User: Fold these one by one.
Assistant:
Number 1:
Amino acid sequence: MTFINLTKPATGDTDYQDPDISPAGPRTTTPLDPDTARRNQQLVDQYAEQLYDAPADAILDWARTHAPGALIVTLSMENTVLAELAAHHLPEADFLFLDTEYHFAETLDVARQVAERYPNQRLITAKAQLSRAQQDKVYGPSLYLTHPTACCRMRKVEPLAVALSPYVGWVTGLRRADGPTRATAPALSLDRTGRLKISPIITWTLEETEQYIEAHDLIRHPLTSQGYPSIGCATCTLPVAPGEDPRAGRWAGNAKTECGLHT
């Protein structure tokens, strides 16, 4: 297991760049063509209510039938439920893993296993403009402690934005049971770029997720059995006590509750 550094670094050097300013380079999503954007809006207007509590297979079969172009499935590697579902219902879709370079070693091993288990679907790995070492040099050491929102923006939000450019929509692992900030999240919506945002396991509980993993003998992230029901970067994730909010260990001790991918 990778241990977590919760020690705030010294900040004697003040010659660092403002973390609110991202490094030069691509960091936004290419706009959709007007016809696709209109079609996506029509689909959400027509089907969002119908799909709100629909089962995962119905949502994914709907996506395969109606999406006006290519879709990509985002995988955090906390579990591989979406990969398994997509292999059956969206076999043409690509997989996307955001490698922040701060992941637990176990998370990277799950990503490797996913590539091996699902060879018919391309696994795309997206990274930030700067490596960890470059980020420390430009913005100061341990930005995840001194400015966690900026760190998430540069290492998660912006790489996702760039990676989504070739696609008309993305499939997410959002679940309403993950916490109060997601309690009313829709199964189908538009993101800020007008792309379809599809969440097939939105109604699943942690228990239902576990049942699916067991029934299909899926790849397991070993930390999920060690008190980590929600897994992000190793630097910003702690185990939680039984009965606690599953996301209570994310950015523990900080008012931050979301990385920005879903806000």
Number 2:
Amino acid sequence: MSVTRTTDPDLIGFDPARLARIDEHFGRYVDEGRLAGWQIVVTRRGEIAHSSTYGARDAEAGAPVGEDTLWRIYSMTKPVTSVAAMMLWEEGRFELTDEISRWLPEFADMRVYSKGSVLKPYTVPAVEPIRVWHLLTHTAGLTYGFMQTSVVDGLYRAAGYELMPPPGVDLAGACAVFGEFPLLFQPGTAWGYSVATDVLGRLVEVVSGQSLEAFFTDRIFRPLGMTDTRWWVEEADAERLAALYVPDPRTGRAVRHERFGAVAREKPGLHSGGAGLISSAADYHRFTQMLLRGGELDGVRLLGPRTVRFMTRNHLPGGHDLATHSVGGFAETIFDGVGFGLGFAVIDDPVPSRLPSSVGEYYWGGIASTAFWVDPAQELTGLLFTQLMPSSTWPLRSQLRQLVYAALVD
């Protein structure tokens, strides 16, 4: 499958010379050694206006990025899981206000951290049960062990749940453990980036009667023609997988992280709805086009258009932004002027975010610096793929938006 340009950019409102600045700018990251390589796709009105690759998918092997390179998309799995859940919602299988303990009893009678230490936390009863919409909006009170911002994430780490689960744990087992931890806050009162989407993936399994892997394949990947998206890379495709890098703390140059990168070549014991997928630019392009078209692509409909519009509105209490409701810590988004919908960050006001975006634009990214956004107002999508952890290392996402919108001249 190809992601080559399908039209002249000037026919859909782009200045070709200004689009060329994208490659010039991001090429410097590779030339200076800060990235090994990258792939960028920009579309408008269903046409690919700009598609480019640069640098190496494997710098040590001298292997260039190709159109078919496979990328670890990590948290860009979350929107896929959210779409899966809302497909079941459209079938009437649950309501967004339902308590998740109806299907996942380990989350009944939750308690909330109040004070104390990892060794001796003091908790109080949750006054509100965790509901389905709390999982979709990251307002359930769950957290991530790698956050390093609270006693609760310390409890996750102490149990072996930091960035990855302990060996031999499946999704059901992980959720059973998550249900034993106190919540970081009362459900629905704040926003905290968390394992909520992993729990949502388990909900999909129980409600559908399928594994998350089977549901994704049968209901999303195969219908959309996403033939490259998978949970691990087998030997036959190993050469297409990009290597994973981290910045050298002294020089900022990209250094290979083979120990963590090798995980993508192993069959996982846990299919993480929050961070498990590997994909190609062509595949994720099809996923974003489905969203932009209101849940349908090439005659295949996954969601109704009203559902997509509902998912991509700000669902935070009072319509406030993440700056008001976030408990802090790492997240794949800025906070000012940004709300959160059912699986996506949503631009409510581009001025506080200092990004030249449109109201109603929605997006997410992955910890290895991949990113996407969908702008319904401009009928535009943007995709960035590279493999540098963490995603906060360089301002790649904001710079790509800056360059894309500067090239939009109609």
Number 3:
Amino acid sequence: MKTTAKLDRQSRLLLAVNGLIVLAGALSGTFLNVYLWKSKQDYVMIGWFTVAQQVAVGLTFWLTGKWVKEYNKMNALRAGIVLSGVFYLLVLWIGSDVIRWIWPLGLLLGISIGLFWLAFNVVYFEVTDRENRDLFNGWVGLLGSITGIVGPWFSGLLISWLKGDKGYRIIFTISLGIYALGVVLSFFLKKRENGSGYHWAEPVTQLRTKGSPWRLMAPGLAAQGIREGVFAFLVGLLVFVATKQEARLGQFSLITSAISLLTYWLAGKWYKPKFRSPGMLVGALLLWIVIVPLLWKTSYGTLLILGIGSAVFMPLYILPMISSGFDLMGTSNETVEKRVELVVLRELSLMVGRLVGTFIFIVVLMLSKTSLTITVLMLILGASPIASWVFVRKLLHGGKSA
């Protein structure tokens, strides 16, 4: 049965902007932690860099929610893109002394991410509905997979070929140009209608209101963030540590992203709301199982099993989490009016989970840095998607959007 959902011109433009930003991140972001690691081989340092990002992301979502709701959200989106470019410009300028600036650089990157994704998520909600949201999310995953194939593979080859820091500097410069193109393309998106006054305490109000679906969604998102906060930087770093070659990390990203390309395309085409609950549970369980081979050995082969397994099963888990959360913003005219505050609540919930996961990682690694310790920690944190399903399973059959 073919889907009847369609995407209009504004949705496609938003996808294009998203694709450019993800491409720039795929080119440079994949190797950013490797760049830091080569300056100082310290998992804890990378963990603190991640903490700085996540704190800045959460605070930026909350503090700039007023700007996005009451003023021009498109300017917030553009500011996020510009600051991402500024971040890489500073990394190029600082060079080998970058590890001395972990906190300010992490905060700057977090602010840029927060500005872009807050505006993007609000505009995404406005240009989609319950009928085409899974389709849009499928395309987001598809574009992410395409850029994940091209970006890291190209970067890895270039960095390995040029040796030293020269390859990194060229890749960071290319990313600057892509961010600039993203800003230009964003001007073709229509200026969105401003909302009413911004309610600073709305996230707390939702969590304190008896019967609010966000009392289930928020802890579900926090559980999602526990895995994300650590796996986002650790898997790629482990691939480099195991192989000592940027080209192999690029190859790893090429293989896993190529598989994601297929799985997200299939999910976007066939994954219907009625399949969300069982699909999410199956996906969460399988995402945990593919970590188990690391107990035997942390090698390129076992990490590839993890990467391929995650690429295959992640759409089953993540698409219901994304779509059901945004569906809650469209259950009534009141929730539509509060969409900015609810997007902020969504991101704050993810931030809490990411920080919890990263703090656990930092504390454990300060005590022991053995390969087995890291693997056991990944198994424990990697079980958090199952907890997500436990919290949100009752919300996966939500009503129609307003």
